[in-house]
Design a protein that fits this description.
mainly beta; five-stranded antiparallel beta sheet; 5 helices
């Protein structure tokens, strides 16, 4: 009898510890040897389950057993005879047979089953053979003569191993579905885990000295009173925790904490291959944002998110998502220094509660009781100009500062016009300040240097045309050409401080207002310049008024000049006017003059000289030196220098190099620019002691 069976086997089983699936395959080599016929390859593949084989050798052994079990049913033989000793498992050699009577091994067989039949020679009517057997199994032997014996048997060739199929099949203890369990671990600890992100669990049906609540302590065994429910890290085996995302050093991760309830599933239904697939809330562990029926909150469940606790329970981290209609919001928060960022529709909500509180505003809020820093290595833009962020009409980009550019260019035009007018009137002006302003505008203007190259990381860096998706080649994507900070407002910017405010620029400060500038100081307003100070008004004049105190104009090392196109009026309302000079005083109007020099007074006029007075008293001559205080020499040699750091071997500039400058005891740190220059530092005078220190990456403070 021939039966078509699979004649090849492939087995594999995934092992997560090895990151491999030990496998093996085998094909029948007995078909020709035992004349079982010629068949195409009919393989069986078994790849279910986990950790079925520790090694490929183990898989090969199981593969061989399964193949031998399949080979057993490929071809079998049936026969009949009268050898009473024939039994299952016996081997025999068949001789003098037309087809199998040779000595090549094809005539050696093993018996699988034997059916015996014996007919007695008792008198008729005593016992009926059919009555004894009572079965159709003896149909083959009907017609036997009394006192004879016959048998039928089934056998296979001697070369075929006898391996029952049940022995070759891999059978596992079967779990009936997912089950819940409690996380257990080291007593007193919050979590117990290991490198491979596994935990220990204890099921409700485990019995022992520390079962789950409501469980049994009686093991029902005389020899084992401790059972298998220790309530600690000694429970069972390590169980893997499933994650929504998992990869090599990326993915999500959570470690169920001791005492929490988890849902456990079993790979391929094998109870020896558990895996934690989820964590469950219960009567003891309530959701952080509970809502709905019987909940004390004022909504039906619009708040969701993620909330964790510190291992000691003293702090938390959380991510809140509020899907209330027309009131969408999000919060990312940490109890450490009460740090959080709130986005969207802002309402009050305490950390441990899901209660939605009063309205607080809209937009975004970034707050912390500790320090806060905004850093942009390539630049920072702070603006209150609104931008659309959705729809086909969006043409804005990240660093789009069009309104600020318009304001800066307007300020530049106004400053240039007033400076030109001042220069024409011989007033001092700073060309470097105007150049610095132009450089700043050029570095932020997309029509100059403030733009990305045509392609960035393989993507065209051009703005979309308004109303469609076509790119506009004349509209590049904006960026700052230097790491600058630009602040722009569609309305007002207010700087307020309860203490001091310090503004410093290593280069120039350009201050321009479209209308008025007002400076007010409750105590002293002091402006100091290292070189010169110029005050110029195009129209309206200049007033210097001291409401309660003196007014002093001093030129310590040079001349003091007061010029007016028209009259000059000097009035002392309550006291006198004194004009003093150490050498000479000359008062001149037209061609007439009065000169006071040394001990002489000289009156000069081309025409009439008249002296009028009711009394003319000419007393003896006398003299008194003018009381003149010595003016200080305030000329302090000032040097404001920057240094170029170069490689001592190759002479090339050290660009983007961290450094530290020590100047007369003061310390300045920074990073050189693209040309290797440090920032400008005040050296005091030409004899300053300057030391340059080259720093490593990350050594610059701040």
């Amino acid at each position: 009898a021939r039966t078509v069976q699979s004649n090849a086997v492939t087995l594999a089983s995934w092992d997560p510890a090895q990151l491999a699936a030990p496998a093996a395959e085998d094909a029948s080599r007995l078909l020709g040897a035992v004349s079982a016929g010629t068949l195409p390859s009919l393989p069986v593949f078994e790849g279910a389950g986990e950790r079925g084989f520790a090694t490929a050798e183990h898989a090969a052994l199981q593969c061989q057993l399964m193949l031998q079990a399949l080979e057993l049913g490929n071809k079998s033989f049936e026969g009949a005879g009268a050898v009473r000793q024939l039994a299952a498992g016996h081997a025999f050699t068949l001789n003098q047979h037309d087809h199998y009577g040779d000595s090549s091994g094809m005539n050696a067989f093993k018996v699988l089953t034997v059916a015996h039949a014996a007919i007695n020679n008792f008198a008729a009517g005593k016992v009926s053979a059919g009555g004894v057997a009572g079965s159709s199994t003896l149909e083959h032997f009907r017609g036997l003569e009394p006192g004879t014996y016959r048998n039928t048997f089934k056998c296979v060739r001697q070369a075929v191993p006898i391996v029952p199929l049940a022995l070759a099949q891999r059978l596992w203890p079967t779990a009936l579905g997912t089950q819940s369990a409690l996380v257990v671990g080291v007593p007193g600890a919050a979590i117990t885990t290991e490198r491979d992100h596994r935990i220990k669990v204890q099921f409700a049906w485990q019995r022992g000295i520390a079962p789950n609540a409501g469980g049994l302590t009686d093991t029902g065994l005389l020899h084992d009173k401790s059972g298998n429910a220790p309530g600690s890290e000694a429970s069972g085996t390590w169980v893997r925790v499933a994650e929504a995302l998992a990869g090599p050093n990326w993915g999500t991760q959570f470690v169920p904490r001791i005492g929490g309830e988890v849902l456990v599933d079993f790979i391929a239904g094998d109870i020896d291959r558990p895996v934690v697939v989820a964590q469950l809330y219960n009567g003891a562990d309530l959701p952080p944002y509970l809502a709905g029926v019987d909940a004390p909150t004022n909504h039906a469940g619009v708040v969701s998110g993620w909330h964790s606790h510190a291992l000691d329970g003293a702090g938390f981290n959380q991510w809140v998502v509020d899907d209330s209609q027309a009131q969408l919001r999000m919060r990312l928060a940490s109890s450490s220094a009460a740090s959080q960022i709130n986005l969207g529709y802002l309402v009050a909500q305490s950390a441990p509660s899901a209660q939605r509180g009063s309205y607080r505003g809209a937009g975004f809020e970034l707050r912390s009781d500790a320090w806060g820093v905004v850093r942009g290595g390539d630049g920072v833009l702070l603006s209150s100009a609104a931008r659309l962020q959705s729809g086909a009409s969006v043409a804005s980009t990240q660093m789009d500062a069009a309104e600020a550019m318009a304001q800066l260019k307007g300020a530049q035009a106004l400053s240039t016009a007033l400076t030109d007018a001042a220069t024409q009137q011989k007033a001092l002006s700073s060309a470097s300040a105007h150049q610095a302003q132009a450089d700043f505008i050029g570095a932020t203007d997309a029509q100059d240097k403030g733009m990305h190259p045509t392609s960035v990381n393989g993507q065209t860096a051009q703005k979309a045309t308004v109303g469609n998706r076509t790119l506009d080649a004349d509209q590049p994507v904006e960026r700052f050409a230097a790491p600058m900070v630009l602040m722009a407002s569609a309305a007002t910017i207010n700087w307020a401080s309860a203490a001091s405010t310090a503004i410093f620029a290593g280069g120039q400060v350009q201050w321009t207002s479209g209308t008025d500038t007002h400076w007010a100081a409750a105590q002293t307003l002091s402006t100091v310049s290292g070189y010169a100070t110029a005050l110029f008004t195009h129209a309206g004049g200049i007033q210097a008024i001291a409401g309660n105190g003196p007014v002093s104009l001093q030129a310590h090392t040079d001349a003091l000049e007061i010029l007016a196109d028209q009259a000059v009026t000097v009035v002392s309302v309550q006291d006198c006017i004194e004009i003093k000079a150490s050498q000479k005083i000359t008062l001149q109007a037209g061609q007439s003059s009065v000169t006071l020099e040394g001990g002489n007074i000289t009156f000069a006029c081309p025409r009439l000289f008249s002296v009028k007075g009711g009394v003319h008293a000419f007393e003896d001559g006398s003299s008194k030196a003018a009381g003149l205080g010595k003016l200080p020499d305030s000329r302090v040699p000032l040097y404001d220098l920057r240094y170029c750091l170069t490689d001592s071997v190759y002479g090339v500039p050290l660009s983007r190099q961290p450094y530290r400058l020590r100047v007369n005891g003061d310390v300045f740190e920074g990073i050189t620019d693209d040309k290797g220059y440090t920032t400008s530092v005040p050296t005091g005078d030409s004899s300053a002691n300057v030391m340059v220190e080259i720093l490593g990456e990350g050594e610059v403070n701040g």
